[in-house]
Amino acid sequence: MYCENAENCNATAKPLQEHFQTIILSTKTLHSSLSFGLADIMTPYLIHHFLERHAQTAPEHPACIHGEETLSYAELDRAANRVAHMLRELGVRRNDRVALMIENSSAYIAAYYGILKCGGVTIAAYSTTTAKTLAYILNDCEVGVLITQSKHATVLAEVRDKLPALRAVVLLDALQSENTTADDMTALPWPLITSQHVAQQADTPLPLAMVDLNLASIIYTSGSTGDPRGATLSHLNIVTNTRSIVSYLGLTASDRIMVVLPFAYVYGKSLLNTHMAAGGTVVLDNRFVFPNVVLKTMQEQETTGFSGVPSTYAILLGKSAIRKMEFPALRYLTQAGGAMAPSLIREVMEIFSKQKVFIMYGATEASARLSYVPPEQLARKVGSIGIPIPNVELHLIKDNGEEAALGEVGEIVARGANMMQGYWNQPEETKNALTQHGFHTGDLGRMDEEGFFYVVGRKRDMIKSGANRVSAKEIEETILEHPHILEAAVIGVPDQYLGEAICAYITLKPEHMNGKADELSEALIAFCRERLPEFKVPRTVHVRESLPKNASGKIMKEALRMEQK
Questions:
Q1: Number of folded domains in the chain?
Q2: Are residue 432 and residue 481 in the same domain, yes or no?
């Protein structure tokens, strides 16, 4: 241990302390330089080691491409070092929480790794975060420094009197942007650190030794109480998961991933860490509202990989020119972030018949991957979440604590070094999620005779209709088999006779948007009645132009439930 705040030490002990501190810091500097010198043969054990390793072994290789900007590994590493020095200047020490509210960019990546290099803990906030959610997250984990952009001046103004722990705001763009003036930012009550000041910092590594048990990230996810809960992930958790993903995807330095998912989302963050681990390249495009623009970027940059959640692929297949385009460099696609309907999976497989399609399953609390379907098995295992990734065990646990037999339904419970440490400031939630069996996902599943797992529903997404428990997922998959349907969400709504009645919300493919809503609803109910038992058939169907989604593209069923109240 060493004193990072020598000015607080007893004056009589100060000379002796400074003597020993000099020796310790010198030792740490030596350790640091040895680590960099042996980077090509040492195994990274901290997240930022991935970046540092390739900055030493392949300094000119492109790490990030965003529009006209390309940053090499060496350039990105130096940028991260500057952020680390700036944070240390602001008093950020090991385990201090630093929040990021930035859209995907090289600035985000530099800030993310800079926080880790300084020993800090990264707190992700979506660039679309509301003032209420932002205040809750930043107060919950007592964030001292927020790294953001000037365009967020309005939301910051809304929370100016609600963040007692916040002591500085770091701005990683110009003081004036399209919708923000310099006055908007300088009127805020916190000291403002500009990008110019960050650029003046040293670009060498900080002499700081850490172990992989140190906390690296707190990622907030929805909680049973209504407020977000922060999953605490150590360097060990994330590095372990990263290595497993790199292994089964077969990632190398030649891989280029098209990133449309936000880095604030754990799936998006895994795209960054896995490609930094492999020495590959992340290609950023924040314009997925115009999917054809992103597809053109993929062609121009010769990306080898693409990743998305179910709604990402629904948009590609329903609202883009994907069927008319060729992607000769594309090697693989991945999907996670919730179950994708079998009909949509088959369509993706048909369009991308020359590429490997990885269907994956995971949770924020698992850093985030738990299982995947090997592409060569996908055609005969459509609907499965696959087999555990390397270094993960999956079990099915029944309500009585016993392991489910083959074919029986139980809760999916996971064990592995990638499981979170717990929920920040949530001891009861932690106790429920982490037991002697492992991490409880909240998903109900079964396993077939070949060891492939299937999700049959969420514990909290089961509809109690009359005497029957009905899986919303099963009904959604049936609805999505209809050729006119683009997206579907099924919920239970209060019913005086059944307890809950089944209600479906749908969106239509563009070529079928001109139909009459009443006729479409009746036709879909009839379609379901031909394929499902009567107690599983929706009583009502609502046709919408779009369904509410969060920043990571997941459909927000809670917003739909609120409509029914």
A1: 3
A2: no
- pLDDT of amino acid 565: 66
- What is the amino acid identity at position 77? D
pLDDT by 10-residue block (mean), the chain, 565 residues: 36 33 33 37 84 97 97 98 98 97 96 98 92 93 96 92 96 64 74 94 94 96 69 98 98 98 95 98 96 98 96 91 96 92 93 97 96 98 97 95 92 98 95 96 94 86 71 87 92 77 92 80 92 88 91 84 77
With respect to residue 98, please indicate whether it lies within any of the assigned structural domains. yes
Rounded Cα distance, 342 and 176, in Å: 47
Cα 116–chain centre separation? 17
State the residue range of the domain holding 515: 466-563
- Give the Å distances, CA to CA, from 265 to 96, 143, 362, 546, 553: 21, 19, 13, 21, 10
| pLDDT at res. 466 | 65
Give me the residue label for tokens 């005969």: 380
CATH at 366: 3.40.50.12780
Q: What is the pLDDT of residue 35?
A: 37
- In terms of domains, do 314 and 268 share one? yes
Please tell me the pTM assigned to this model: 0.81
Asked whether residue 416 is assigned to any structural domain, the reply reads yes
Token pair of 392, please?
Answer: 């993960």
The residue out of 405, 429, 458 marking a domain boundary is: 458
- Measured CA to CA in angstroms, residue 170 lies from 201, 264, 533 at distances of 14, 17, 57
- Asked if residues 130 and 155 have their Cβ atoms less than 8 Å apart, the reply is yes
Q: How far apart are CA 542 and CA 528, in angstroms?
A: 14
Instruction: Say whether both 404 and 550 belong to one domain.
Output: no
The answer to whether residue 24 is domain-embedded is no
- Cα angle vertex 21, ends 16, 24, to 5°? 130
| CA distance readout (Å), 483 to 341, 367, 474, 507, 516 | 13, 36, 17, 12, 16
